[in-house]
Amino acid sequence: MIARSDWSSAEPSPDIYLGKTDSGHTIRMDASPQHTGPSPMEMVLTALCGCTSVDVVHILQKKRQPLESLTVSAEAEKRKDPPNYFTKIHLTYTVRGQNGQPLSRKAVEDAVALSKDKYCSVSAMLEKSAEIDFVIDYNDVEPLP
What we know:
The protein is an alpha+beta fold.
């Protein structure tokens, strides 16, 4: 995997960086107060949400759960002194079954645990410096056992 970040004095803001991926994508990062793009740390937190989402969706599909949607949101705390890495991350998994159908509590809990403990590479890296915990929100539908 290859990635790079480009900075140029020709940019209108001195804090704009273009992240480029091996797969050909470009992401505009902004470290200025204007936030015309995500900051690098926001990208890390978003990567965590995306990584665990992929795992949970695939696991629930394999378990034949009638999943309609999944939202993973994160709230994080950072060290006050540089380097300002994350020290605590709280994830909320909001799941919804198709047409309001209940999902299996065990299947969802197992999927989230497998992502956190086994499959999500971003989580594995962040857990070296941050405590990561989570809750599961069943969107006001009582889950099946």
